[in-house]
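Page 42, continued from yesterday. The earlier attempt failed because a stray header line got pasted into the input along with the sequence. Redoing it now with the clean sequence only.
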Amino acid sequence: MKKLLLSISIVAAVVGCRPAQEQVAFKMPAVDDIAMYQVNPRVFAPEKSLNAVAARIDSIRELGVNVMWVMPIYPIGIEKGKNSPYCIRDYKAIAPEFGTIDDFKNLAKVCHEHDMGIILDWVANHTAWDHPWVKEHPDWYTHDEKTDTIIHPRPWDWFDVADLNYDNKDMRAAMIDAMKFWIVEVGIDGFRCDVADGVPADFWKDAINQLRAAAGRKILMLAEGKNLDNFTVGGFDMNYGWDYKDGLVKVFKGAPAQDLINADMLEYHDLPAGKVKLRFTTNHDHSTEATPCVEFTNDRGAMAAYVASIYPHGGALIYGSQEVGYPEPINFFKYVPVDWTAKPEIYQEYKKLIEIYNKHSALRKGTIKAWPDKDVFVFEKRDKKETILVMVNVRNKAKTIQVPDNWKGRKVKDIVTEKDYQLDASLPLESFQYLILK
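This time it went through. Structure tokens are written below.
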């Protein structure tokens, strides 16, 4: 009996000492199977917003996304501050505005229970001016050569933050230690790394290697950057499709639709195998200026742009608020209330598009063949299972597209509407209409 009790005690002690991630039965999907949802807590509630996000988990998960990216939730700097969540004065704490560490752990638990990963925004390029490091370790920051005073990150006008010095090995070690805290103690599944191109790639290599080893499981590392060394040196899984988004906007404003063929090719031309570009029609930066239903003319234009964004090469992102067609700019420096019941038809359309994205692997990671046209983005996606033809009218007026020769004479079905088509030499499309044909 004593031996039995002792055995039980030992087992209980071992289980109780396990890191947070070992107690979670979630496995991060393959990088080319990811559909991501970005959370700006400040559109969910003016206070305790992490709980408000958790309360909406069913609606978020039903979109078909499988990874949640949460913007910074750390205490925000006051000195020289402008209430930006990217101005951080403590890497291992949570601002009361958003909730508590237990609230965040609960959100992570809820995500995992809904078969979703959760990654956290990480700002390694700079800190708030009132971060303890500024006074305790001034040598951890970049100094002006003439005045020997700490500077803000240059060439940007981010005067609310202090630039970190990556020549300092002690600072690097402290940064990695703080990142490990969230992986090991809290149980998150990776990071989205802000201004990744502003931080030396060799730091990311060291950090990511240590994080993967500490996690003992698959984690996701997303770089907010577009440099190739994010992958070849740093070891990231994904980075940003900034150039493709810029090209998308230009095309919807009148540039030839075929420019998207080149934009897509340029982003993937030298990309190492297994790496993915994050594709989006908006994010927290772009929505401060214009949301998709304005930037792409109207709701129909926004949906056409989304199809043209996520199906050429996967990497789908939805920014929380676009799924209800929120029309006004969102300033992420303050609370902006979003009506989550608005435009249910838009929510259903995003849900359908992500459902198709998840169901048809050819659309996420199949080979692409495209045909040039000035008004309609036409491309075929193919894998071993199937071949799908996508047509997107990028104009706010009806257009007629010439059907590719290898598709002429076929009887096909639009996967979205279930409508049958007999493909002849040409096909009329309404303004901003898209077809996903199989």
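Notes: The radius of gyration is 23 Å.
Reminder to self: strip header lines before submitting.
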